[in-house]
Write a structure and sequence with these properties.
- The structure is a single chain.
- By secondary structure, this protein is an alpha/beta fold.
- The protein is built from 9 helices and 19 strands.
- Helices cover about 25% and strands about 25% of the residues.
- The protein has an 8-stranded parallel beta sheet with strand order 5-6-7-8-9-10-13-14.
- A hairpin with a 5-residue loop joins strand 15 and strand 16.
- Helix 2 packs parallel to helix 3 (about 150-160), helix 3 (about 150-160) packs parallel to helix 4 and helix 8 packs across helix 9.
- It is globular, with a radius of gyration of 20 Å.
- The relative contact order is 0.17.
Length: about 375
């Protein structure tokens, strides 16, 4: 049994001062104000800081220096030290069929051996996206026609562990792929990604479970209906449809999403439909002119932005900086909302019976301690 005292407990829409959290058997046993701590419980003194649910990063490729499939234990360790207690390794469309399968083999072996305790399934950023968009697009092996003999082995291997499948709805015969992926995992969420689809093309896939916009406003097209007249495309469809969540990469300089645009998106989508992601990638290209101080994002050698070098706690701090949002808000964006999207019902909020995944932060969202499954986490 573990008890955390002297914390303000962060809930989705309020805080509990003088809070105490009691865990037992990897679950939240009780939470409230000035609770009595059972005799014999190990006690963590939060020293007046804040305790919220463990962070849930649904879209990251690694830790900025290595991919999950290169060294899953090291990446897992890094993320845990930054408060991420659940993570979906993102597998990108630059992998071919055999590389997708090999990557999953490595990741799942680490999880089975206890070296990847925060593994929560896959974020499949591919295979069938629009080859016009995204870093490393010149290496995309999935440019050809959608073919079951190509995609079926990947979908079959991922099966129920694929929580998110990214698609470009404008790809010819994309419904064939979506139908097959849905058959293999009825609970999978589909996301519009690396796309210049029309709203009609996007909304046609919503009955299958399209409920997410991948790194909203990044790697999306703009369709001009008439000269000097803005058309409607992916970003407008994500903003218009209340059922669709918007992923946001929130870097320090506001390069992925300008701070003004972050505030606009928050105003349109509301607090319930924003999900912060890190989208950490691995690239060693030089910064493009004007971005020399962009320490938390990556560039490839063609001059394209190639994801970030952030962990999710950094994205939370940046979101507070750029939008003035509260600790309640960022815990919602980085834990409650992604858990709700993916039907991870035992995560995302500190309440009795939920998983005892907890992060203690200060008022600036610096991570002080991570608890996963009721155990205080120590790096090896």
């Amino acid at each position: 049994m573990l008890a955390i005292k002297n914390v303000t407990v962060v809930m989705p829409d309020h805080m509990i001062p003088d809070g105490v959290i009691i865990t037992d058997g990897g679950k939240i046993f009780d939470v409230g104000r000035k609770l009595n701590i059972p005799p014999g419980a190990k006690v963590i003194d939060g020293e007046g800081n804040y305790a919220g649910p463990g962070l849930v990063d649904i879209h990251t490729h690694g830790d900025g220096d290595r991919y999950f499939y290169d060294d899953p234990h090291t990446v897992s360790d890094t993320l845990l030290r930054h408060g991420v207690t659940s993570v979906l390794p993102a597998l990108y469309f630059n992998l071919n069929r055999d590389e997708y399968i090999a990557a999953m083999d490595v990741i799942e072996k680490a999880a089975e051996n206890g070296e990847f305790p925060n593994f929560a399934g896959y974020y499949m950023e591919g295979p069938y996206l629009n080859p016009k968009f995204g870093c490393n697009k010149e290496t995309n092996p999935w440019r050809g026609a959608i073919n079951k003999k190509d995609y079926a082995p990947v979908v079959d291997r991922a099966a129920e562990k694929a929580r998110v499948w990214c698609v470009a709805p404008e790809r010819e015969n994309i419904e064939e792929f979506v139908s097959y992926a849905k058959m293999k995992n009825g609970g999978a969420v589909f996301s519009v990604a690396h796309s210049e689809a029309t709203p009609d093309e996007i909304e046609r896939l919503m009955p299958y479970g399209l409920r997410l916009g991948t790194h909203h406003t990044n790697a999306t097209g703009t369709l001009e209906s008439f000269p000097e007249c803005r058309g409607v495309c992916v970003d407008e469809a994500v903003q218009y449809n209340d059922e669709i969540y918007a992923e946001l990469i929130c870097d320090f300089l506001g390069i992925h999403v300008h701070p003004y645009l972050l505030r606009l998106i928050a105003k349109i989508k509301g607090k319930d439909k924003i999900i912060l992601i890190s989208d950490a990638f691995v690239a060693d290209g030089p910064p493009i002119p004007g971005c020399e101080e962009a320490f938390d994002i990556n560039f490839d050698h063609s001059g394209e932005i190639a994801g970030s070098r952030m962990t999710l706690d950094i994205a939370c701090r940046n979101m507070m900086l750029h939008t003035g949002c509260s600790l309640c808000d960022v815990f919602k964006y980085a834990s409650f909302n992604p858990s709700k999207l993916l039907s991870m019902h035992s995560k995302g909020v500190i309440k009795k019976g939920n998983d005892a995944d907890i992060v203690i932060v200060d008022h600036k969202f610096n991570v002080l301690k991570t608890i996963i499954k009721g155990e205080e986490y120590y790096a090896d």
